Amino acid sequence: MKSVLITFDQAYYERIIVTLDKLNCRGFTSWREVQGRGSHTGEPHYGTHAWPSMASAVITMVDDSRVEPLLRALKEMDDATPRLGLRAFVWNIEQSI
Length: 97
What we know:
With 97 residues, this protein is α+β, with helices and mostly antiparallel strands.
């Protein structure tokens, strides 16, 4: 089992949820408004007058076999519109209840 944290521009929100559904990644938790900036490129997402865009985040726990298809789909989105910003991070899940 893996945990995938996805952070992205708000404009991606519906597409991310549809992608999770298509790949049978049922369970997730989302935060509709988060703030941040990329470590290398991209504009800050602060929700301020100077930097008005906001980001969102989703965390999902998936079987190992679902990780690569999910990352591939997310990379396609990011490659199509790189200035929006989309990142995904994967962790091992040791235990769950």
